[in-house]
Amino acid sequence: MAMMMMMNPINLQFSNLNKITNPYPNSRIQQARSLNSSLITNSSHHNSSFQSLVHEFNPNIPIQQALTPPSSWYTSPDFLSLEFHHVFFKGWQAVGCMEQVQEANSFFTGRLGNIEYVVCRDENGVLRAFHNVCRHHASLLAFGSGKGTCFTCPYHGWTYGLNGSLLKATRITGIKNFNVKDFGLVPLRVAIWGPFILLNFETKVSSQKGYDDDDVGTEWLGSASKILSTNGVDTSLSYLCRREYTIECNWKVFCDNYLDGGYHVPFAHKDLASGLKLDSYSTIIYENVSIQGCDGGEVKSQEDFDRLGSKSLYAFIYPNFMVNRYGPWMDTNLVIPLGPRKCKVIFDYFLDASLKDDEAFVAKSLEDSEKVQMEDIMLCESVQRGLESPAYDCGRYAPMVEKAMHHFHCLLHQNLIK
Ligand code: FES
Question: Does residue 46 register a pLDDT over 70?
Fold first, then answer.
């Protein structure tokens, strides 16, 4: 949304853009455009071109002078492929919540890029995760979510236990050099932090050791781990429900919209704005996390958080997970890229158990939330169309409010150059 708010003034001054972007080479915008063309016409130079494209954003330029990343970061299919490998397939990624695998023999499936996964709790209560791919001829094994004591492949019936072992390979009489132990499901690293389930897609793993909450918290959240857990982002609330939205925009457009420090709220969410003390909006940046605070007074330090408690806290956990903790509520937003101009956002709602049965309160709150989501979706889809326009290459940051967005872009750059 912030980007949309910025489009009009930038476009009005488009012919003066070189003046605005004085710290940069005059041909900066043209370079971005020609790079875009070369990516299409000269595949043999993809790697070097991509690195050049990544460097079109310079994280070392202070936010007051910085340009936003070029629009090709938001439109190129190949750039998205780069993001999967350098951003999403590194480190811990949120994929769901404990509620989805609360009981023994329950499971849920998902897809991130070209990785199909299944998370399950086996009959002994051990949480496990695997690539959701049959070892016979690669059919997907499980679909959606549910309960069962095994995974039976819908293609030829090979059957796997929830611990991943191959229990039955049908009609393989005569096969040679085949050991069932070599054909179990391929495991993934899985961990829990608070109410959230995390996967790590980095390497194949031969065993699934448990992960300590503190270790995972430090790896995933850095120093923000303690801030979040002591400010109400924990397992104390009851799970309520899930809402999913498919949005015609690049996944980063949704993230950017979240990270504009409330910039768009008075313009785009008038009803929401009336209930917020927008002057109190503030942002703290941690390693891989940024936390925006509002409504509970200005939050500028850990001491402020300690003093003010968890009244309203909006945490962005790089690259694609948001945790919103306000009053008796918590909701999480998981942004899943589906293509260069399409993403799915999963909202999970949690509520203080004492209010869960207050149907009128719950219905009104969810209705209000839905209205905000619809307003955001309109903005995000509008921004995506603007990003695809030849009139736009880069924007600027509003330095006082868009710090978290700039931090997000710096983290992306840091991952993408590796
Ligand atoms: S692909 Fe699964 S049993 Fe054949």
Answer: no
